[in-house]
Design a protein that fits this description.
about 900 residues, 28 helices, globular, RNA-binding
Length: about 900
RNA sequence: GCUCGGGUGGUGGAAUAGGUAGACACGCAGGACUUAAAAUCCUGUGGGCAGUAAUGUCCGUACGGGUUCGAUUCCCGUCCCGAGCACCA
């Protein structure tokens, strides 16, 4: 009997689905394990072979953990709100609701074909009102809370107003952006609207004026992680900075906790590093400088990490957007400054980034005073100082900061070296080492001591204080789009007010036109009656990351109408034990979700501070594009190795027309009418294509659809092959060349059970020692590899074991049955079929993982003293290999510590007769 | 520029508390079965040199040093590739 994967896979997929084999429930009797995939955005293009890579890995792990007796939560859903569906709607008029539902149906079909063990009863979709009710609910909670820096957690806004009533805002340590200070009496004298304005500056979800990434082409603002190199990540349109009033989340309040929390997470170092960079903690000092603009004197604050260099400050620089610019520009310089600011404004963010070497700036006419030296310091404005970081103003130390140095040289400002023996004639000396000079009380100190000493002095003289700065900004939370969660906010007298919880979910209304209105209003302005009790509702919607920030909690209790997740289910499932997904979410989703989770933790809705304990980033599968070479102005194509003899154009050709770089010329002619009459110049009678590794995409004609592979080889082969391709974390091009090997292996596996005529070969004989040895070595290997996520090497181990057992002509049930269990996480369908053929109850999921027995793999030893270096005594280990040949090993007689000259400890020396080859130390 | 990864056959990749480098697979070459193809199976396959051959021998894990009885693995320096951040004061 042949291995008929098609029949087998159809049979078991429908069995699993009709029997709800993978349905899970909270079961306090059994240990839980939560394995999560980053849920996909259901795009119109469907899945390509790269998408399932992580899903296969997580499925293997889930199935393995089930066999180990865990109650495994392994859910799937869809991140269904997003830009592509909306843009498609603008182009075609098709409502996103419909296209999204269609795409989901298609995704589901494709996923089902791969044999994943998801509990589909827990499926969620972020665009479903019963789901986004809880996204809105969390937003309301953030609106109603503030962040207390004393307790370092979120607290109800009432505790803050209570504080205001008694003490004003002078004593409270809150994360806020309130400009004014007020006393208790003043607070009480405020009107309701004034009070609301103040409170808005403290809320964790707040409406605030800020410089935002505005994308004209998309008609919306974008978060920092949605912008790369000054272009939008989606679409690649230019992005400019614009001051706008937007909803924001006070993520920056959690900066320190987000940083600390990384410590105990089992994430890759590179990913943690990315988050650390993104949070961008830097320790330093905030210092006040007195400035004078000719008419008045006041203090200006700067942030520096190098307080020790204060004696070398020769000028000050403001960001063009700084609020001090206006105050410090003297009348004579007004025209010049205005011209400079206009010049800066015309530059896009992208230009500002690419022209980093251009030095520009203008003098304000004002001077600051160095508090340590009393020297006059001219105050300049330059675009190299950024408004968003620190205080938007710096003290410039050209001798020890390369940016200040370039600026000083360009505008002929003095440079004062502060480190003994450093040469600043050509470039600045930025390194934090050396001994201080020209620095008053710091002279003679090494830099690492001078930094804290300087800060201490600054504090002593009350010129400023120690300060930790973060690069992490608050998340901009409004999008001027239709296809997202509506805000549970309405406006009364122009003041934002929360909807009552009972009004949730606030459902997204159906509209006719998805375009932003002519006046730049969001699409929701086209909705009829977009009001609450006669008051206008917020018209922007939430960004993509809103729906994905707490979805892992919802899977724990997806149907709950009363709460995001019940306390009982949250206590049981706790957190995600294993999270698998792409590294592209490092500074987006993975920061936001951690923030969101910490916020809910503060409020007591969830029991874990961190949502994802272990995280594995699967690599990207790139496409391998194929090319043909058309001789210019002809319809003749020349093969790869002869192309240099002609003047050719490289053209992408559909990889499905190419096998092992050989082009199917007839299929090529049929592919596109343009090539119907194509001629070919061949080599050895074949047309060889060129190739390149590129991103897998439709436009490169290099997309390989998993459905095609499934119908050719079956899902089990695809699953194993994707794992066999290389380490999970590594990116690699998709290359079908090796898939036959894996497919052959599965056929070979099948043949262990049946002969050519389909007769069952399985016997009830007692297993032989060598057979048990193969089996138990494999058990140990599979267990080890799965725990360490090296799925590729496991498959090699399977291949070796099956070859060995085939050589031993082993068809014994007691060997084959555990083998089927071992392979079931990788190739579940064939395993189920064979499991049933062996006469067991379906399904393998109810079996348990075979137990490794060391006895079977232990080496047989006997005394056989030999000498080595005249000092060591060894035991000979007799070992039979599978062909029955003898391998001799020599093991140190006892565990005494013996030392070589280098001091290494020797435990075991393995010897091949006559020659020492292996000394284990 | 800074940070983090990584450089192993024709290819994907094995092997690191230092111990026979190249497992496993692909590809390629040769062979068996077959009228033929498909499928399946067997053999060989890092390089050089010597030998009819079994085999022997030297060189080999980006490059140059070091530690060690022994280095793909540890240390120092150089080069290259990938990823992330990037006027962050």
């Amino acid at each position: 009997m042949e291995y008929k994967f098609k029949e087998i896979e159809d049979k078991w997929q429908s069995y699993w689905s009709s029997h709800k084999t993978f349905k899970v429930d909270t079961d306090p009797e059994r240990p839980k394990f939560y394995v999560l995939d980053m849920f996909p955005y259901p795009s119109g293009a469907g899945l390509h072979v790269g998408h399932p890579l992580g899903y296969i890995a997580s499925d293997i792990y889930s199935r393995y953990k089930r066999l180990r007796g865990y109650n495994v939560l392994h859910p799937m859903g869809y991140d269904a709100f997003g830009l592509p569906a909306e843009q498609y709607a603008i182009q075609t008029g098709q409502p996103p609701q419909k296209t999204t539902a269609d795409n989901i149906a298609r995704y589901r079909k494709q996923l089902d074909k791969l044999g994943f063990s998801y509990d589909w009863d827990r499926e969620i979709r972020t665009c479903d009102p019963s789901y986004y009710k809880w996204t809105q609910w969390a937003f309301l909670k953030m609106f109603q809370h503030w962040f207390n820096r004393e307790s370092c957690k979120a607290e109800p806004i009432e505790t803050l107003t209570n504080e205001f009533v008694h003490n004003g805002n002078r004593l409270v340590r809150a994360a806020h952006h309130c400009q004014k200070e007020f006393s208790a009496e003043e607070w009480l004298s405020f009107t309701d609207n004034e009070k609301e304005d103040v409170l808005m500056c403290y809320r964790i979800a707040y409406l605030g004026e800020t410089s935002v990434n505005w994308c004209e082409a998309l008609g919306t603002v974008l978060a920092n992680d949605e912008v790369k190199d000054g272009l939008s990540v989606r679409g690649g349109y230019p992005v400019e900075q614009k001051k706008m009033k937007q909803w924001q989340l006070r993520v920056s309040a959690y900066a320190e906790r987000l940083l600390e929390g990384l410590e105990d997470l089992a994430w890759s170092d590179s990913l943690k590093e990315m988050q650390r960079n993104w949070i961008g903690r830097s320790e330093g000092a905030q210092m006040d400088f007195m400035v004078n603009n000719g008419t008045e004197t006041f203090s200006m604050t700067v942030f520096t990490t190098r307080a020790d260099t204060v004696f070398g400050v020769t000028f000050m620089v403001l960001a063009p957007e700084s609020e001090w610019v206006e105050k410090l520009t003297v009348p004579e310089k007004e025209k010049e400054v205005r011209e400079y600011l206009d010049y800066v404004k015309t530059k896009t963010e992208r230009e500002r980034m690419t022209e980093t070497h251009r030095v520009t700036g203008v003098f304000t006419g004002s001077y600051a005073v160095n508090p340590f030296t009393g020297k006059q310091l001219p105050v300049w404005i330059s675009e190299y100082v950024m408004a968003g970081y620190g205080t938007g103003a710096i003290m410039a130390v050209p001798a020890h900061d390369s940016r200040d140095y370039i600026f000083a040289r360009h505008f002929n400002l003095p440079v004062i070296p502060l480190i003994e023996g450093c040469d600043v004639s050509h470039e600045s000396f930025d390194a934090k080492d050396g001994v201080m000079c020209n620095s008053g009380f710091l002279n003679g100190m090494p830099v690492e001591k001078a930094i804290p000493a300087a800060i201490e002095e600054v504090e002593k003289r009350q010129l400023g204080s120690r300060k930790v700065n973060y690069r992490l900004r608050d998340a901009i939370f409004s999008r001027q789009r239709y296809w997202g969660e509506p805000f549970p906010i309405y406006y009364k007298d122009g003041v934002a007010r929360p909807l009552p919880e009972s009004a949730l979910p606030l459902e997204l209304p159906l509209i006719d036109s998805f375009r932003p209105s002519g006046s730049g209003e969001p699409p929701l302005s086209n909705a009829k009656n977009w009001t609450y009790e006669g008051h206008p509702l917020e018209k922007s919607t939430m960004p993509g990351f809103a729906g994905s920030s707490a979805y892992y909690l919802r899977y724990m209790d997806p149907a709950n109408a009363e709460a995001l997740v019940s306390e009982r289910d949250n206590r049981y499932w706790q957190d995600v034990d294993l999270y698998i997904g792409g590294t592209e979410h490092a500074t987006g989703h993975l920061i936001y979700s951690r923030f969101w989770n910490k916020f809910l933790f503060d409020l007591g809705y969830v029991c874990k501070d961190e949502p994802f304990r272990k995280l594995v980033n699967q690599g990207m599968i790139q496409g391998r594009s194929s090319f043909v070479y058309r001789i210019k102005n002809t319809n003749t194509f020349v093969t790869y190795n002869l192309k240099d003899k002609y003047d050719t154009t490289e053209i992408h050709v559909d990889v499905n027309l190419v096998q092992n770089d050989r082009l199917d010329t007839d299929a090529f002619k049929a592919w596109n009418p343009e090539y119907r009459n194509a001629d070919f110049i061949l080599e050895n009678g074949e047309y060889i294509c060129g190739s390149a590794v590129e991103k897998m995409s439709k436009s490169m004609f290099n997309v390989v659809n998993p459905d095609t592979i499934c119908s050719h080889y079956g899902a089990d082969t695809l699953r194993m092959y994707e794992m066999f391709l290389g380490p999970l974390e590594q990116s690699k091009p998709w290359d079908t060349n090796g898939i036959d090997g894996v497919h052959r292996f599965l056929k070979k596996f099948w043949r262990m059970f049946f002969d050519k005529n389909g007769t069952l070969l399985v016997t009830e004989e007692t297993p032989h020692g060598n057979e048990l040895k193969v089996l138990h070595n494999l058990i140990r290997k599979v267990e080890d590899d799965i725990e360490h996520f090296s799925f590729n090497t496991t498959i090699s181990a399977f291949m070796i074991s099956i070859n060995e057992l085939t050589d031993l002509h082993c068809h014994k049930r007691s060997i084959l049955e555990p083998l089927v269990i071992l392979i079931s996480p990788y190739a579940p369908h064939i395993a189920e079929e064979l499991w049933q053929i062996l006469g067991n109850q379906p399904s393998v999921a109810n079996a348990s993982f075979p137990i490794y027995n060391e006895e079977y793999t232990k080496e047989h030893t006997m005394d056989y003293p030999v000498s080595f270096n005249g000092k060591l005594r060894f035991k000979k280990t007799l070992d039979l290999d599978l062909t029955g040949a003898q391998i001799e090993r020599f093991v140190l007689e006892d565990e005494r510590t013996l030392k070589y000259a280098g001091g290494a400890q020797i435990r075991k020396v393995i010897v091949i007769p006559g020659k020492i080859i292996n000394i284990v130390v």
